[in-house]
Design goal:
The structure is a single chain. 15% of the residues lie in helices and 35% in strands. By secondary structure, it is of the alpha+beta class. The protein folds into 3 domains: 39 residues, no CATH class; 286 residues, Rossmann fold (3-Layer(aba) Sandwich), CATH 3.40.50; 133 residues, Sandwich (Immunoglobulin-like).
Length: 519
């Protein structure tokens, strides 16, 4: 396997991987796994910027024919052609809205842009199947794996490529539709085979509509009976983790960004192993109650992922949705698709996430000693050196039908490079500065970066940190400068930092004590 460092589409780096396909394996599919620093192995999502990227095919199992009566309407695609489900039916339930959300189109008089498009090209294609058909004995597997019935034997045989992702749960309580035992087994097999699954609102909780409660913990990393409340309502989702899921095909913002969603609520799901991407948030919640019950952010999930399985609280508002909410779903679908027939992939989020080392400082010159009234001034030139550490990644590629890995595995260090040094000087040994509130202290970095400061005959501290091109910044160094000593000396002296100075002072005190003790 070969690699090269790429300047990814988000402008913060990436790693392009290339590998040789297994011989005599025309239809082989591959999954790429990444380990960041010393973390766990995780699957890498497909790259939507690749010109050879094939659209992600999604099966939407939309609620239909169960206990809830769902409004029907007329769906039109972006070309104003009637949309039909896999049964050939038009005039279908509003719960099938995922197709126009992702591909663009209309539901009755409401138009939608394609949230699943990237650079103007649809990257997500949705097929629709009503739950009442999908949930028949053996049919869940038939539809998810794109199988057909053999006319002679009646057995299900492969009819095409399995869907990359299946989504279930676009309506409140899933329209009263609960998968049968055989459908749950099909979902477990589908997930175990590496295909993606997105579960919506009211699908993995512990209430009367507990659609997939029994597989919530093992397959979704969600405890349906954990320390989490029921019925905390919100219209805001807050990002808690940034990564591929918050960037492709729609950039949603960084950590702390609030996104507008349709009204939904918590349902006793506690995040227990899954990655928590977003939480529900409302300023009207009783914070005292939250503290008294010991609730944490894991008690208020809006969006989670667990390998190739994701859970979202979208669905409570019966396919009424906000633009940002539709973008969240598109990104989630992208993130759950991991299999490719190509022999290359760009890991778009293999960025440099690690801070540079604490900088080193050297006094290289002092000059222009002068008097201004009673003050003695001197110019001191400092050389600052920053070192970009970078983030280490390991990669391996698996052929999915055999489980065999392409050799060799590789290790990559992604470095963004040094960008700035930020500094100020004063007589306070603990001054704090940061690149947001003190942007005026930051300067472009080069390998021979120098700065000259003017000091008096006093003790000074040069406060400095280094920043890389991905805005990671090092710990702050408080560099000790003895202006009193400099003002009385006529020879050049080397720098000495605060930690070394403290050590020397302590040593001198010990030596003085020993000398006096033995007199």
């Amino acid at each position: 396997m070969n690699y090269s460092l790429e300047y990814g589409s988000q402008g913060k780096g990436g790693v392009r991987l290339e590998w040789k396909k297994f011989p005599d394996c025309v239809d082989c599919e591959y999954e790429v796994y990444r380990k960041q620093n010393n973390g766990d192995w995780e699957e890498v999502s497909l790259d939507p910027t690749d010109e050879e990227f094939k659209p992600i095919h999604v099966l939407n199992v939309y609620p239909s024919g169960c206990t809830s009566t769902i409004t029907k309407g007329n769906f039109k695609d972006a070309q104003n052609v009637d949309i039909k489900d896999l049964c050939g039916t038009s005039n279908i339930e509003k719960s099938a809205s995922l197709k126009v959300w992702m591909e663009g189109g209309k539901y009755d008089k409401t138009s939608f842009e394609a949230s699943g498009a990237y650079n103007g090209t649809n990257k997500i294609l949705v097929d629709l199947v009503p739950f009442k058909i999908w949930d028949q004995a053996g049919y869940a597997e038939k539809y998810m794996y794109a199988k057909i019935e053999d006319k002679n034997t009646g057995e299900l045989v492969n009819g095409g490529k399995p869907y990359d992702v299946t989504l279930l749960g676009t309506w409140d309580s899933n329209g009263g539709c609960k998968p049968s035992a055989s459908s749950l087994e099909a979902i477990k097999k589908y997930l175990s085979d590496g295909y993606g699954f997105v579960a919506g609102h009211d699908t993995v909780d512990d209430h009367t509509h507990n659609t997939m409660k029994d597989i919530a913990q093992e397959y979704f990393g969600i405890n349906p009976t954990g320390n989490a409340p029921y019925g905390y309502y919100a219209t805001t989702a807050r990002i808690w983790k940034s990564g591929f899921l918050t960037m492709f095909p729609n950039y949603l913002g960084g950590v702390g960004t609030n996104l507008t969603i349709q009204k939904t609520h918590t349902s006793t799901q506690y995040v227990n192993g899954a990655i928590l991407w977003m939480t529900l948030y409302s300023s009207s919640w009783d914070q005292n109650e939250i503290r008294n019950y010991g609730y944490t952010k894991e008690s208020f999930p809006f969006l989670t992922s667990y390998g190739n399985a994701a859970f979202t609280q979208t669905g409570h508002s019966n396919c009424n949705s906000e633009k940002q909410e539709r973008q969240i779903i598109a990104n989630t679908i992208f993130s759950m698709a991991h299999k490719t027939k190509l022999s290359h992939l760009i890991d778009q989020v293999a960025w440099d996430y690690d801070a540079p080392n604490i900088p080193t400082v050297q006094i290289i010159k002092r000059s222009n000693k002068r008097k201004e009234g009673r003050k003695t001034l001197i110019d001191v030139t400092l050389k600052v050196k920053g070192v970009d550490v970078g983030t280490t990644y390991k990669y391996k590629v698996k052929e999915t039908s055999t489980g065999d890995f392409v050799q060799p595995q590789i290790s990559v260090i992604a470095k963004s490079g040094m960008a700035k040094v930020c500094h100020t000087i004063n007589t306070n040994p603990t001054t704090s500065i940061n690149p947001v509130e003190n942007a005026e202290t930051c300067h472009p970095y080069n390998d021979d970066y120098q700065t000259t400061v003017t000091i008096q005959d006093s003790i000074y501290y040069f406060h400095v940190f280094a920043m890389d091109k991905n805005d990671n910044y090092s710990p702050l160094l408080h560099f000790y400068i003895n202006g009193k000593e400099m003002s009385t000396q006529t020879f050049s002296m080397d720098y000495i930092d605060v930690n070394t100075q403290d050590f020397i002072t302590k040593c001198l005190k010990i030596v003085a004590w020993m000398y006096l003790s033995f007199q």
